[in-house]
Amino acid sequence: MSRYSSSPGIRSYRKAASALVGSTLLLGSGAHASEVAQAGQTGVSAESDAANAVLANTVGASAAADSAEAPSDAIVVTADKYRINTLNSRLPDVRDAPQSISIIPREIIEQQAATTLNDVLRNVSGISMAAGEGGGGPAGDNLTLRGFGARNDIFVDGIRDFASYTRDTFNVEQVEVVKGPASAQTGRGSTGGYINMFSKQPKLDTFVNGTVGLGLPGYVRGTADLNVGGESLGVGSGAALRLNLMYHDADVPGRDHVKTKRWGIAPSIALGLGTSTRAILSYVRIEGDNQPDYGIPFVPNTNVALPEYHDKPAP
Which parts of the chain span the membrane according to its record (predicted)? Predict the structure, then answer.
């Protein structure tokens, strides 16, 4: 037999019809092939109808089994509420915000042993730390965000904190950086964006944490974090009390007469935790006795008061 000769039509039709019936229910018995006898068409159509009936019964039985196994109880979904004074409380969802947002959580701060806001912000691109170049300008956190001064765009729990001081992280849970204009969220501000420091809040758990650091030259630092919540406080199931303490005393390596010394205390109390109505009262106090480092003064050759120090560091 030549390879170009065709085989009996009924055999080819049965193979094609079987394949079509096995692959989909939409075709049913509507498959037709050319050059097939009427008797063959009738037989294959009967096979298709039988296969469709078996498949329909199987689908119906499967649906009935699924409905029988489905539980009759309602499905309850539980989740933690967003913490207040964070970006999530002021924006519907941070992921949907049309801005570049960076959030540095507490885990990163602890792993890097970051003790100041400047140390934390080194994880964020687009921020420069200034230090009053030339010996002028105020001390403290002097930041530039996207080329614009952000000294007055630092917030603590959503409240503007424009004071000039070195901000410590002993009472900080996370740091949020929003880049770009954000007047819709914070009101008046610069074009670069703003920085929000989210403070630690009381929890219903009871725990005690602390850190101790010793180093050279003359580095001593200690922090304590105490939290009592729930029934342990004896006030109510939704009440909690938290206290954070800090002491820091350190010299600057390679620099004389430059030091940082500060201490802080931050108590807070919360009522109604775990309910839809919550109230949190917090207080923070930081005192510092620091000697800022403005660099090494240089005497130009035009200075007439110190001619012996021309083109040299000042005495």
Answer: none
- Domain assignment of residue 56, yes or no: yes
Contact by Cβ (8 Å): 17, 9: no
- C-alpha to C-alpha distance for 91 and 83, rounded to whole angstroms: 12
**Residues contacting 142, CB < 8 A, separation 6+:** 129, 130, 131, 132, 149, 151
The rounded Cα 18 to chain-centroid distance in angstroms is 56
Residues 170 and 254 in one domain: no
Q: Can you give the residue range of the structural domain that contains 44?
A: 9-69
Render 161-179 in DSSP notation, one character per residue: ----S--BSTTEEEEEEEE
C-beta of residue 29 within 8 angstroms of C-beta of residue 52: yes
Q: Examine residue 42 and state whether it is found in any structural domain, yes or no.
A: yes
- Kindly indicate the confidence band of residue 79, based on its pLDDT and cuts at 50, 70 and 90: low
Contacts of residue 315, Cβ cutoff 8 Å, sequence gap at least 6:
306, 309
Angle formed at CA 16 by CA 14 and CA 18, multiple of 5 degrees: 65
With 0-12 / 13-18 / 19 or more C-beta atoms within 10 angstroms meaning exposed / middle / buried, residue 232 is middle
Under the banding of pLDDT at 50, 70 and 90, the label for residue 169 is very high
| 181 and 103 inside one domain | yes
Overall number of domains in the chain: 3
